[in-house]
Fold Class I SAM-dependent methyltransferase.
Amino acid sequence: MTTTDWTSWHDAYSRPGSGLGDRLVAVRAQIDRFLETTAPAPVRVVSACAGDGRDLLGVLAERADAARVTARLVELDADLVAAARSAAAALPAHVEVVQADASRSDAYAGAVPADLVLLCGIFGNISDADVRATIRAVAQLCAPRAEVVWTRHRGEPDLTPSIRAWFADAGFEEIGFTAGEGATWSVGAHRLVAEPQRLQRDQAWFTFVR
Ligand SMILES: C[S@@+](CC[C@H](N)C(=O)[O-])C[C@H]1O[C@@H](n2cnc3c(N)ncnc32)[C@H](O)[C@@H]1O
């Protein structure tokens, strides 16, 4: 059961010193690099627990080739879903924002296999066991050589060394890891090098504990 007001949580993006603005820059840089390296091919993106979608939508708003992107954003909070839909409506990309439980595999049916999977703002809010289970399952969302961009704070005990090892165990190679200087945020990017897996329906991968 989550107790956090996630709409207010987003206010920290504009609060100097929160680190969230710097983390956003790092996430957007990974998304932009992905779009640059895959251009001009059409690409599919899924974002789990997408919030107001400002990471992906902010990048698409700056790109002339946004129309080649088809995306599904999955978010539970109605206000954040509305904000994401409003931002997406201004873009030529094909963005669907669904109000659904992103921990359930069924939320992705019809939107995968994706070339880019965003897992941002999740790993700090679920148990370590669920982080591991989600990493084990993420190949079910992936097209061949898909990339996954994820975030996790590095507060003690720092889970990021384990997360990076778990991605390797699950058949991913690391293509980036950025840790905020003097801050605890970090952003990782991994590419699937093993075979993708078929989406298994009716599975639950994580539970928010905050
Ligand atoms: C830390 S915020 C991250 C938002 C966004 N990904 C970002 O990085 O700015 C976590 C988000 O997950 C959403 N959330 C929590 N549990 C969820 C669930 N089971 N399914 C979908 N969204 C969920 C919250 O409403 C919140 O918007």
User: Anything to note?
Assistant: Residues 23 and 153 are 10 Å apart (CA to CA). The mean pLDDT is 96. Helices lie at 6-9, 20-38, 54-60, 78-89, 128-137, 160-169. The first helix runs from residue 6 to 9.
